[in-house]
Protein backbone atom coordinates (compact mmCIF):
# COMPACT_ATOMS: atom_id res chain seq x y z
CA UNK A 1 0.00 0.00 0.00
CA UNK A 2 1.29 3.45 -0.88
CA UNK A 3 1.90 5.64 2.15
CA UNK A 4 -0.35 8.65 2.62
CA UNK A 5 1.10 11.99 1.57
CA UNK A 6 0.31 15.69 2.02
CA UNK A 7 -1.92 17.34 -0.57
CA UNK A 8 -0.08 18.83 -3.54
CA UNK A 9 0.12 22.59 -3.96
CA UNK A 10 -1.45 24.58 -6.79
CA UNK A 11 1.13 27.00 -8.25
CA UNK A 12 -1.63 29.36 -9.47
CA UNK A 13 -2.67 30.38 -5.96
CA UNK A 14 -1.97 34.04 -4.93
CA UNK A 15 -0.83 32.88 -1.47
CA UNK A 16 2.93 32.23 -1.22
CA UNK A 17 3.59 28.54 -1.86
CA UNK A 18 5.70 28.06 1.24
CA UNK A 19 2.78 29.26 3.42
CA UNK A 20 0.45 26.80 1.71
CA UNK A 21 3.06 24.10 2.10
CA UNK A 22 3.28 24.79 5.85
CA UNK A 23 -0.49 24.51 6.15
CA UNK A 24 -0.62 21.30 4.09
CA UNK A 25 2.26 19.69 5.93
CA UNK A 26 0.90 20.61 9.38
CA UNK A 27 -2.57 19.34 8.45
CA UNK A 28 -1.12 16.09 7.13
CA UNK A 29 1.10 15.50 10.16
CA UNK A 30 -1.76 16.15 12.55
CA UNK A 31 -4.27 13.95 10.71
CA UNK A 32 -1.92 11.05 9.98
CA UNK A 33 0.05 11.20 13.21
CA UNK A 34 3.75 11.99 13.64
CA UNK A 35 6.27 9.84 11.77
CA UNK A 36 8.52 7.35 13.52
CA UNK A 37 10.71 9.14 16.08
CA UNK A 38 9.00 12.38 14.93
CA UNK A 39 11.56 12.49 12.11
CA UNK A 40 10.43 14.06 8.81
CA UNK A 41 11.29 12.61 5.43
CA UNK A 42 14.13 14.17 3.41
CA UNK A 43 13.54 17.50 1.64
CA UNK A 44 13.51 15.83 -1.78
CA UNK A 45 10.67 13.51 -0.76
CA UNK A 46 8.63 16.31 0.84
CA UNK A 47 9.11 18.50 -2.25
CA UNK A 48 7.85 15.69 -4.50
CA UNK A 49 4.85 14.96 -2.28
CA UNK A 50 3.82 18.61 -2.08
CA UNK A 51 4.54 19.33 -5.75
CA UNK A 52 6.91 22.20 -5.03
CA UNK A 53 10.57 22.90 -5.73
CA UNK A 54 13.42 22.06 -3.37
CA UNK A 55 13.88 25.82 -2.86
CA UNK A 56 10.26 26.17 -1.73
CA UNK A 57 10.48 23.22 0.65
CA UNK A 58 13.67 24.66 2.17
CA UNK A 59 11.85 27.99 2.70
CA UNK A 60 8.92 26.05 4.17
CA UNK A 61 11.08 24.17 6.66
CA UNK A 62 13.01 27.30 7.62
CA UNK A 63 9.74 29.11 8.39
CA UNK A 64 8.41 26.08 10.30
CA UNK A 65 11.57 26.02 12.40
CA UNK A 66 11.27 29.74 13.18
CA UNK A 67 7.64 29.16 14.19
CA UNK A 68 8.51 26.27 16.49
CA UNK A 69 6.94 23.43 14.49
CA UNK A 70 10.19 21.58 13.81
CA UNK A 71 13.84 21.39 14.83
CA UNK A 72 16.62 20.61 12.37
CA UNK A 73 19.62 18.76 13.76
CA UNK A 74 22.64 18.80 11.49
CA UNK A 75 23.65 15.28 10.51
CA UNK A 76 20.68 13.76 12.34
CA UNK A 77 17.49 14.93 10.65
CA UNK A 78 14.46 17.18 10.94
CA UNK A 79 12.09 16.51 13.85
CA UNK A 80 8.47 17.63 14.06
CA UNK A 81 6.92 18.80 17.35
CA UNK A 82 3.41 17.30 17.79
CA UNK A 83 2.88 19.59 20.80
CA UNK A 84 3.24 22.67 18.55
CA UNK A 85 0.87 21.20 15.96
CA UNK A 86 -1.82 20.96 18.64
CA UNK A 87 -1.50 24.66 19.56
CA UNK A 88 -4.41 25.99 17.50
CA UNK A 89 -4.91 29.42 19.07
CA UNK A 90 -1.44 30.90 18.78
CA UNK A 91 -1.81 34.62 19.28
CA UNK A 92 1.50 35.40 17.55
CA UNK A 93 0.25 33.83 14.31
CA UNK A 94 -3.15 35.55 14.18
CA UNK A 95 -4.03 36.97 10.78
CA UNK A 96 -7.74 36.27 10.49
CA UNK A 97 -9.95 36.06 13.59
CA UNK A 98 -12.54 33.99 11.75
CA UNK A 99 -9.89 31.40 10.94
CA UNK A 100 -8.57 31.53 14.50
CA UNK A 101 -12.01 30.73 15.89
CA UNK A 102 -12.53 27.96 13.35
CA UNK A 103 -9.35 26.31 14.65
CA UNK A 104 -11.00 25.91 18.05
CA UNK A 105 -13.59 23.59 16.48
CA UNK A 106 -16.54 25.98 16.35
CA UNK A 107 -18.77 25.38 13.35
CA UNK A 108 -20.27 28.87 12.95
CA UNK A 109 -18.29 32.12 13.00
CA UNK A 110 -20.14 35.43 12.71
CA UNK A 111 -19.08 39.06 12.96
CA UNK A 112 -21.37 41.92 13.97
CA UNK A 113 -20.01 45.32 12.87
CA UNK A 114 -20.88 48.95 13.43
CA UNK A 115 -19.12 52.01 11.99
CA UNK A 116 -18.90 55.51 13.44
CA UNK A 117 -16.81 58.69 13.29
CA UNK A 118 -14.55 60.25 15.91
CA UNK A 119 -11.39 62.33 16.26
CA UNK A 120 -7.95 60.87 16.87
CA UNK A 121 -7.52 62.18 20.42
CA UNK A 122 -5.27 59.87 22.44
CA UNK A 123 -4.49 57.82 19.30
CA UNK A 124 -3.02 60.76 17.36
CA UNK A 125 0.55 59.81 18.24
CA UNK A 126 0.34 56.18 17.14
CA UNK A 127 -1.43 57.16 13.91
CA UNK A 128 0.83 60.10 13.10
CA UNK A 129 -2.04 62.62 12.82
CA UNK A 130 -3.27 65.68 14.73
CA UNK A 131 -5.52 65.10 17.77
CA UNK A 132 -8.48 66.67 15.92
CA UNK A 133 -7.96 64.55 12.79
CA UNK A 134 -11.06 62.57 11.83
CA UNK A 135 -11.17 58.81 12.23
CA UNK A 136 -13.49 56.09 11.00
CA UNK A 137 -14.13 53.59 13.81
CA UNK A 138 -15.13 49.99 13.17
CA UNK A 139 -16.35 48.01 16.17
CA UNK A 140 -16.81 44.28 15.68
CA UNK A 141 -17.90 41.37 17.84
CA UNK A 142 -16.85 37.92 16.63
CA UNK A 143 -19.20 35.14 17.68
CA UNK A 144 -18.14 31.50 17.94
CA UNK A 145 -21.23 29.29 17.72
CA UNK A 146 -23.22 32.23 19.05
CA UNK A 147 -20.90 33.01 21.97
CA UNK A 148 -19.09 36.41 21.97
CA UNK A 149 -15.39 35.60 21.71
CA UNK A 150 -13.49 38.62 20.36
CA UNK A 151 -14.24 42.36 20.39
CA UNK A 152 -12.24 44.65 18.11
CA UNK A 153 -12.06 48.42 17.78
CA UNK A 154 -10.35 49.54 14.56
CA UNK A 155 -9.40 53.22 14.11
CA UNK A 156 -8.58 54.38 10.58
CA UNK A 157 -7.51 57.98 9.70
CA UNK A 158 -10.22 59.47 7.49
CA UNK A 159 -7.61 60.96 5.14
CA UNK A 160 -6.43 57.58 3.86
CA UNK A 161 -9.91 56.25 3.07
CA UNK A 162 -10.92 56.47 -0.57
CA UNK A 163 -14.54 57.58 -0.91
CA UNK A 164 -17.17 56.18 1.45
CA UNK A 165 -16.17 54.06 4.42
CA UNK A 166 -16.65 50.44 3.34
CA UNK A 167 -18.33 48.03 5.72
CA UNK A 168 -16.42 44.81 6.48
CA UNK A 169 -17.97 41.64 5.13
CA UNK A 170 -18.67 38.69 7.47
CA UNK A 171 -15.43 37.83 9.32
CA UNK A 172 -13.18 39.88 7.00
CA UNK A 173 -9.66 40.47 8.32
CA UNK A 174 -8.36 43.95 9.08
CA UNK A 175 -5.72 43.48 6.36
CA UNK A 176 -8.46 43.00 3.77
CA UNK A 177 -10.50 45.85 5.22
CA UNK A 178 -7.69 48.41 5.07
CA UNK A 179 -6.83 47.38 1.50
CA UNK A 180 -10.47 47.84 0.47
CA UNK A 181 -10.83 51.15 2.33
CA UNK A 182 -7.62 52.85 1.23
CA UNK A 183 -5.97 50.82 -1.50
CA UNK A 184 -3.01 50.50 0.86
CA UNK A 185 -1.41 47.19 1.75
CA UNK A 186 -0.31 46.61 5.33
CA UNK A 187 3.22 45.22 5.33
CA UNK A 188 3.96 45.00 9.06
CA UNK A 189 2.57 45.71 12.49
CA UNK A 190 3.75 46.51 15.99
CA UNK A 191 1.66 45.04 18.79
CA UNK A 192 1.42 45.40 22.55
CA UNK A 193 -0.21 42.95 24.95
CA UNK A 194 -1.77 44.68 27.94
CA UNK A 195 -3.60 43.54 31.05
CA UNK A 196 -6.70 45.68 31.51
CA UNK A 197 -10.00 45.57 33.33
CA UNK A 198 -13.33 45.19 31.59
CA UNK A 199 -15.18 48.50 31.11
CA UNK A 200 -18.88 48.91 30.35
CA UNK A 201 -18.38 48.83 26.55
CA UNK A 202 -16.23 45.69 26.49
CA UNK A 203 -18.41 44.01 29.11
CA UNK A 204 -21.53 44.56 27.02
CA UNK A 205 -19.83 43.34 23.84
CA UNK A 206 -18.39 40.15 25.35
CA UNK A 207 -20.88 39.44 28.10
CA UNK A 208 -18.27 39.93 30.84
CA UNK A 209 -18.46 41.55 34.25
CA UNK A 210 -17.22 45.13 34.58
CA UNK A 211 -13.97 45.29 36.52
CA UNK A 212 -12.72 41.77 35.86
CA UNK A 213 -9.28 41.34 34.19
CA UNK A 214 -9.01 40.97 30.42
CA UNK A 215 -6.23 40.64 27.85
CA UNK A 216 -5.97 43.52 25.37
CA UNK A 217 -3.94 43.31 22.16
CA UNK A 218 -3.25 46.75 20.68
CA UNK A 219 -1.49 47.05 17.34
CA UNK A 220 -0.61 49.58 14.65
CA UNK A 221 -0.46 48.47 11.02
CA UNK A 222 1.93 50.21 8.61
CA UNK A 223 2.49 50.30 4.84
CA UNK A 224 5.84 49.76 3.15
CA UNK A 225 6.73 53.43 3.63
CA UNK A 226 6.18 52.99 7.37
CA UNK A 227 3.04 55.12 7.33
CA UNK A 228 0.51 54.15 10.03
CA UNK A 229 -2.70 52.82 8.48
CA UNK A 230 -4.77 51.93 11.54
CA UNK A 231 -4.72 51.35 15.27
CA UNK A 232 -6.66 48.37 16.57
CA UNK A 233 -7.60 47.24 20.06
CA UNK A 234 -8.64 43.62 20.45
CA UNK A 235 -10.18 42.05 23.55
CA UNK A 236 -10.36 38.27 23.96
CA UNK A 237 -12.93 36.35 25.96
CA UNK A 238 -10.56 33.61 27.04
CA UNK A 239 -13.38 31.45 28.39
CA UNK A 240 -14.38 30.97 24.74
CA UNK A 241 -10.97 31.14 23.05
CA UNK A 242 -7.98 30.18 25.24
CA UNK A 243 -4.85 31.74 23.76
CA UNK A 244 -1.32 30.39 23.63
CA UNK A 245 2.07 31.07 22.06
CA UNK A 246 4.71 28.75 20.65
CA UNK A 247 8.34 29.77 20.64
CA UNK A 248 11.77 28.26 20.35
CA UNK A 249 14.23 28.36 23.21
CA UNK A 250 17.24 30.56 22.61
CA UNK A 251 19.58 27.59 22.34
CA UNK A 252 17.46 26.06 19.56
CA UNK A 253 16.87 29.26 17.57
CA UNK A 254 18.52 28.81 14.13
CA UNK A 255 18.82 32.60 13.69
CA UNK A 256 20.66 33.14 16.98
CA UNK A 257 24.39 33.62 16.84
CA UNK A 258 25.96 31.43 19.49
CA UNK A 259 28.74 33.12 21.39
CA UNK A 260 31.76 31.18 22.66
CA UNK A 261 30.97 29.73 26.06
CA UNK A 262 27.18 29.56 25.46
Q: How does this structure look, described?
A:
- Helix content is 26%, strand content 27%.
- A hairpin with a 5-residue loop joins strand 7 and strand 8 (228-236).
- The model is unreliable at 257-262 (pLDDT under 50).
- It has 8 helices and 8 strands, in the order αααββααβαββαβαββ.
- 24% of the residues are buried.
- The protein has 262 residues and is of the alpha+beta class.
- It has 2 domains: 17-86, Winged helix-like DNA-binding domain superfamily/Winged helix DNA-binding domain (Arc Repressor Mutant, subunit A, Orthogonal Bundle), CATH 1.10.10.10; 91-236, Chorismate lyase-like (Chorismate lyase).
Write the layout of secondary structure elements.
Layout: H1 17-32, H2 43-50, H3 54-66, E1 70-73, E2 77-80, H4 82-85, H5 97-103, E3 109-119, H6 124-127, E4 134-144, E5 147-157, H7 174-182, E6 188-197, H8 200-206, E7 213-222, E8 228-236
Antiparallel strand pairs: 1-2, 3-4, 4-5, 5-8, 6-7, 7-8
Helix pairs in contact: 1-3, 2-3
* Backbone shape: globular
CATH domain fold name of the largest domain: Chorismate lyase
- What is the SS-derived class? alpha+beta
Low-confidence stretches: 257-262
> What value does the Rg take, in angstroms?
21 Å
Please provide the count of β strands. 8
Number of domains: 2
CATH H level, superfamily name of the largest domain: Chorismate lyase-like
CATH architecture of the largest domain: 3-Layer(aba) Sandwich
- The helix content, as a percent range, equals 25-40%
Mean pLDDT: 82
Number of H- or I-type helical stretches: 8
Strand content: 25-35%
Q: Assign the CATH class of the largest domain.
A: Alpha Beta
Tell me the span between the first and last alpha carbons: 48 Å
Which strand order does the major sheet show? 3-4-5-8-7-6
The run of helices and strands is: HHHEEHHEHEEHEHEE
For the largest beta-sheet, the strand count, sense and barrel status come to: 6 strands, antiparallel
